[in-house]
């Protein structure tokens, strides 16, 4: 297993290109199952999660071709010869559940393994299932699999999500494009990845209104066609690399960065004393003098502060001046990085959904272990600003969501290298 060696090396200066969003690409790829015609995604990130989704789609009979160094994914789902998404693939990546809605809508039946929980929480899929039932799906749970049928096709319905779920909104939105009549999704997620999905579906011929607001209305159509769609910028990769100069000092320009993707996060950085400037090519982040100020953070659905940046923000707060309280409201177990940061000299207390971080002037490098994707990158960020060497093990988590992390940070002056096979 690979690990990453980081050595604290002072301020960072330079430019980092931001890739297409993993979480958008993982919902755009299953959209290919809705149409017999090809769907091509440009600006796709090169990540292990994308390879896992490729394997899943191929197992269902889709063809996926990577071009231009893997940045373009040409997909075709002319004939789906298998309607069963196996546990062996689904357990590796929860986003696999997103094949359920499209397959059911187009084929009238699908069998998809339940994903199970993961390190950050139980993460049930009940809302995905309830929304599909509201469109007339008949569902049965057998031996860990969802057996779904809609013999006469799905029918439009009204469904109000009891809590905001990104994945359930995506599954329901895709299914509704081929349902008969009108579907209204209330209390829908408003994340930029939902907007990107709706724009792609519209390019394929879907009739959708309201994406980005909490009520989305979909008028079902008989069939969808092919399309070419660019994957939206990865706002979580963007926020992660914005934190690198905030933690280490210096100035880094994030190419392709947009403030509207991360407004709440940008506001918090500025409150902490970090400058965020819109440039011709993206966003520039700068911290010149002294420590940042401690700021409190509450994670919320978009447009609130994203849970996927909470671990990285905690790494920044570890060396802030003062005490910060981070409240995690999306996932019940998303503070697994705290004990690892404590091994590096951070002063953190975790009580249920709250973490209190008392800033220390400097952290010290240590061997640490990544427990999930964002935890792993938070440890790398902390290591960049710590004294001495930090070795982050279990970086297969990191490879799910960050491409060429060593190269991107290294180009700005970070001392970071991958140690293979440890
Ligand atoms: C591949 C992808 O896009 N992953 C993102 C997606 O995950 P994902 O789509 O899994 O997250 P959700 O928005 O669905 O989860 C939000 C909350 O709702 C709960 N819930 C969700 C569905 C359900 O049927 N029942 C239920 O109770 C979850 O356990 C969680 O507590 O949104 C999360 C919240 O922004 C991000 O952290 C993930 O990076
Ligand atoms: C939690 C994440 O991903 P997933 O939903 O695929 O586990 C993430 O991207 O931070």
From TrEMBL:
Residues 7-409 form the Enolpyruvate transferase domain. Keywords: Cell cycle, Cell division, Cell shape, Cell wall biogenesis/degradation, Cytoplasm, Peptidoglycan synthesis, Pyruvate, Transferase. Pathway: Cell wall biogenesis; peptidoglycan biosynthesis. It holds the Pfam family EPSP_synthase. The modification 2-(S-cysteinyl)pyruvic acid O-phosphothioketal is found at residue 118. It is an enzyme of class 2 (transferase). GO terms for biological process: cell division; cell wall organization; peptidoglycan biosynthetic process; regulation of cell shape; UDP-N-acetylgalactosamine biosynthetic process. Its EC number is 2.5.1.7. It comes from the Bacteria. It is found in: Cytoplasm. Gene3D superfamilies: Enolpyruvate transferase domain. The active site is at residue 118. One of its GO terms (molecular function) is UDP-N-acetylglucosamine 1-carboxyvinyltransferase activity. Phosphoenolpyruvate binds at residues 22-23. Belongs to the EPSP synthase family. MurA subfamily. HAMAP family: MurA. Cell wall formation. Adds enolpyruvyl to UDP-N-acetylglucosamine. This is UDP-N-acetylglucosamine 1-carboxyvinyltransferase. The gene is murA.
């Amino acid at each position: 297993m690979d690990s990453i060696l980081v050595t604290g090396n002072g301020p960072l200066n330079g430019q980092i290109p931001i890739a297409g969003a993993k979480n958008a690409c993982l919902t755009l790829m299953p959209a290919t199952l809705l149409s017999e015609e090809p769907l091509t995604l440009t600006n796709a990130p090169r990540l292990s999660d994308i390879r896992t989704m490729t394997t899943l789609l191929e197992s269902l009979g889709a063809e996926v071709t990577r071009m231009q160094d893997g940045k373009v994914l040409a997909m075709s789902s002319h004939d789906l010869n298998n309607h069963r998404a196996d546990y062996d693939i689904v357990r590796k990546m929860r986003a696999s559940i997103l094949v359920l809605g499209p397959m059911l809508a187009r084929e009238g039946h699908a069998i998809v393994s339940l994903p199970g929980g993961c390190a950050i929480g139980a993460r049930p899929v009940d809302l995905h299932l309830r929304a599909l039932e509201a469109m007339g799906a008949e569902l049965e749970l057998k031996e860990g699999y969802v057996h779904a049928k809609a013999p006469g096709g799905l029918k439009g319905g009204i469904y109000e999500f009891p809590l905001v779920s990104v994945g359930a909104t995506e599954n329901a939105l895709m299914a509704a494009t081929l349902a008969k009549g009108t579907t209204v999704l209330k209390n829908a997620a408003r994340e930029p990845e939902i907007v990107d999905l709706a724009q792609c579906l519209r390019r394929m011929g879907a009739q959708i209104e309201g994406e980005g607001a909490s009520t989305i209305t979909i008028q079902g159509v008989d069939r969808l066609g092919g399309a070419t769609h660019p994957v939206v910028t990865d706002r979580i990769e963007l926020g992660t690399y914005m934190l690198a100069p905030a933690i280490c000092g210096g100035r880094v320009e994030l190419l392709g960065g947009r403030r509207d993707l991360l407004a709440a996060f940008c506001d918090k950085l500025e409150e902490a004393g970090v400058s965020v400037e819109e440039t011709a090519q993206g966003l520039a982040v700068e911290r010149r003098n002294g420590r940042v100020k401690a700021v409190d953070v509450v994670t919320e659905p978009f447009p609130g502060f994203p849970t996927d940046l909470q671990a990285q923000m905690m790494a920044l707060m570890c060396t802030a001046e003062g005490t910060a309280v981070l409240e995690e409201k999306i996932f019940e177990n998303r503070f697994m990085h705290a004990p690892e940061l404590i091994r590096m000299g951070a002063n953190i207390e975790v009580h249920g959904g709250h973490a209190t971080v008392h800033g220390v002037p400097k952290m010290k490098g240590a061997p640490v272990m990544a427990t999930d994707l964002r935890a792993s990158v938070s440890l790398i960020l902390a290591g960049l600003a710590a004294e001495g060497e930090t070795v982050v093990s279990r970086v297969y988590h990191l490879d799910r969501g960050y491409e060429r992390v060593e190269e991107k940070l290294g180009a700005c002056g970070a001392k970071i290298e991958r140690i293979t096979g440890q």
